[in-house]
What we know:
With 65 residues, the protein is mainly alpha-helical. The chain has one domain. The protein is built from four helices and two strands. It has helices at residues 14-18, 23-31, 38-53, 58-61, and strands spanning 3-5, 11-13. It has a two-stranded antiparallel ribbon. The protein is globular.
Amino acid sequence: MTIVRNRQGVEMNFRDVERKMNPQLLAELKSLNESEDEQALFEKYATAHVDRFHQSFAPFTGGRS
């Protein structure tokens, strides 16, 4: 189990967070073929989510998902 931390430092299981991610956006980020750990991917996804959907990614910001 990989643990990631959101913006407030709350620990979460990355697999649980990953299930809440948009599959297309996640695939696009993974296709960049950058060897990043799950924490870096989580943070990058949160930024990309705002850019694409014009709203924060709740698991990262600590909001309701």
